[in-house]
Amino acid sequence: MSEEKKAGFATLIGRPNVGKSTLMNAMIGQKIAITSNKPQTTRNRIQTVFTDERGQIVFVDTPGIMKAKNKLGEYMVSAAERMITEVDVVLWLVEPTTYIGGGERHILEELSKVKCPVILVINKTDTIAKEDILAVIDTYRKEYEFAEIIPVSALKNNNVDDVIESIFKYLPEGHPFYDEDTVTDQPVKAIAAEMIREKALKCLSDEIPHGIAVAVDSMKWRKGNAICDIDATIVCERDSHKGIIIGKQGQMLKKIGSAARYEIERLIDCKVNLKIWVKVKKDWRDSDFLVKNFGYDKKEL
Question: What is d(CA 251, CA 270) in angstroms, rounded to the nearest whole number?
Answer without folding.
Answer: 25
